[in-house]
């Protein structure tokens, strides 16, 4: 039945695209993206090329809209996938998504591949992130309706997805409601929103179990208040246990609570977040494991670092954690002593998380003693000196649990400097240093980049572990952008590490070789 359903939606997609081309009605768009790596053997790092030495991820996306109607398709080819992707990406394979729907006059109806989320996503979220290899769309139907500007309701039903194919037995159904009381009452300066969701994943049990139900029923309750720059929001999520590979057959009930308090105004902004999690991850099927097949979204709520040395050991959300972060920034106005001609930005972030370590050698449950899992203090400043020279100074102090009561600590400093010769030409120098007595000890890194805006950019960089392995990771890149074409070529030696996006990270092994990325849109 589901195969016939997919075929029907695919035929509808092609029909609507043909209609657009033949009758010159509506809008048609297409996008092609490829990310291809050729691997070389490197005895200096131990990097071993895969069989065939090639990894290539390719995406073709077609979309058509006409009035409130839309249809589309996405074809993906992994021939095979680049290294670092998870279980299920082995070998050469293709996968396809098709969808069609209507979004107008308050209605939101969609058939086929469905991407959506309830609340923050802790209960349910399906989305695509090509950086991480995530495309966890469900296949089914979604219907939503918005009453005025204050009430939105939606419901969905569909089949969950493994990496290559949709699962045979696991089905998801859910509903979500969002009500803005302040808009309904036409309050001008005060915002009050309440929301709620319910989700059920049905998957037959292989054997009867009094503690586990084939229905993994969960709910989310949320509320947000806002006034004069202040905002307070909270969410509580609870879900029946779903023991499987991903949580080592944990049969405890999932519970999560998150509270955010923020303020923005007068050049100042701040957000304080508290979160407590227990057994939070929900897989598309109990037999699956890995972040590419989660059907909810539980990112790490820490500073998301973009500098390479600061991101050597990022925090990832744990099965049991309690903690939070405080994120503060202040903008000194231009024309003041501190702000200069273009203003100055100061930012600080502090995050810390505790949790109960798993007792893998014993019961498989959690140890009674709560341990520090991760702590990060970050301070950075950005300021223009005149109209030509910009400097960013960055510092982070990180502490993370390495296991068995052992902790690693590191201090990282960065100076990021950009000089603009004119409106099109600029030179950027990035200097980094990481100091630690543990792990592989000290690192240094440097990057030099020249930009010929808006089309060309060339760079060369080196990461050097001078505290332990004495290894250099030297590479260079060149990128070109023109109209609707963007291309980049990276060549050299690349360290193993973590590729992060939106608070979620995947591990990528070290490699030496050539990487070409190309994006074309029509």
| Averaged pLDDT | 90
Overall strand count:
30
Question: Helix count?
Answer: 2
Could you estimate the helical fraction of the residues in percent? under 10%
How much of the sequence lies in strands comes to over 45%
Derived from helix and strand composition plus strand pairing, the structural class reads mainly beta
Question: Uncertain segments of ≥5 residues (pLDDT<50)?
Answer: 1-13
Radius of gyration: 25 Å
The shape, in one word, is: globular
- Measured between the Cα atoms of the first and last residue, the distance is 34 Å
Main beta sheet, described?
A: 24 strands, antiparallel, barrel
Quick overview of this protein structure:
By secondary structure, the protein is mostly beta strands.
How do the helices and strands line up, and which of them pair or pack?
Elements: H1 2-23, E1 27-40, E2 54-66, E3 69-78, E4 93-104, E5 107-114, E6 117-118, E7 124-125, E8 128-129, E9 134-135, E10 138-147, E11 151-161, E12 166-180, H2 181-184, E13 190-202, E14 215-227, E15 230-239, E16 254-265, E17 268-278, E18 320-332, E19 344-358, E20 366-385, E21 389-403, E22 406-420, E23 425-435, E24 443-452, E25 456-465, E26 471-482, E27 485-494, E28 497-501, E29 504-508, E30 511-521
Antiparallel strand pairs: 1-2, 1-30, 2-3, 3-4, 4-5, 5-10, 6-7, 8-9, 10-11, 11-12, 12-13, 13-14, 14-15, 15-16, 16-17, 17-18, 18-19, 19-20, 20-21, 21-22, 22-23, 23-24, 24-25, 25-26, 26-27, 27-30, 28-29
